[in-house]
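Record now logged for everyone:
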Amino acid sequence: MSDSAAAVQANFIVHLDSDTESPASANKSLTNHRFAKAIAAVSSALLLAAALSARLAAANGGNAGIRARSLKPTTRTLAFFGNELKTNEELGIELSEGLNVRVIANTGEKVQYADGGESALKYHEASDAAGIVPLDPNNPLQDGYVYVTNSEMSDEEGGVYGIYFDRHGNVEEYKVLLPGTTDNCGGGLTPWHTWVSCEEYEDGQCWQVDPNPNGPNHDNPQVTVLGGEGGRYESVAVDDRNSQRPIFFTTEDHERGAMRRFVANGRGWDALHSDGETTFLRILDDGTYEWTADEEAARDSAEKYYRNSEGVNYHDGKLYFMAKKDQKLLVLDLENSTYEAETTGMKFYGEGSFGDQPDQGLFGPTEKWLYFTEDGGSTPGVYARRGHDGTYFTMFQSIEDVYDDDETIGIALSPDNTKFYAGFQEKGVIFEFTRQDGQPFE
């Protein structure tokens, strides 16, 4: 085969692997019809390449090989792995080929430090949502960071904790940041690098926590205005396009839990402890929605369209959130007040399956991928949804029945995006995933 023919063939194969629409089922092979079309396309491409090679040879005195090498395709790395899973029996998980994994913390055990020391506290029980806060927000890659993690323990035994890393990802410290709260489930990061932790019980509130030891409110966590009179709050996202009037969206894990929208009057710590405008999401029957001051009307809408809402994420003028009971992802267009909804995991590619309740979400740095945790089932895991076509891929999941009916939690990315954190709640383990090629997650 000539070099030019090989180049065209290679380009075709890369294109097929990365851009062809993935099948809705877990069947990785093409259908007979598509396979025949693919073979025909390759054959046509090879014929064209042969003709091109002949022309080049004629035009360049037999030096077609030199010219053909300039057509060598640029390497295109898939943004996400997931074609095949490999088994790690020791950790009880299946993870995508191309990933490495190590354990960062185990519930009931002291956290091990990189210098050989260990934490005074044992790692907390019932880990849940988490986020990453850089210790130098102006130069996030030049200093360390904090993995801020909730504890969903009941009866004022919950709270917020922090695992402190140096800039290279070595563990240096573990400590409590907010003690004595109840059922701290989800949360979210603010534009000013604090963490909002949401209590998920009848009278729950949303607390603002500053994990930076140099921050003015590091030792002063406070209840925010986001929770109003109280509720079973879950997660928080921020639309920060108007930096002086950021908009906070808070979900509530209840069948009649209406999403809350709070428009702050200002920026910074005090913005969540001052007056603002609160309205509620009401989805209408015509494919549109509105923000209303009528909380009961919004609760009626939640019961009909988005029961037990969980993770929420803002991206590029749209709000993405999960309705757990209905296994739905809803996307609100904040510009034109329309919405779309899809059943999570219906369009699946590669090995694994995403069949239970969607929970927390996290956009990767390129914002091509929305990563999900899963609550329940015999193989709970972390999955990724590709933005342009809504196809789902497996990052990792439990070996069958090892983490039966557990939930994956704590998804977060290091400031350089090369380390992906996640874990299981009931078994109480936090993992750190890295790509074998050393590249950042997308």
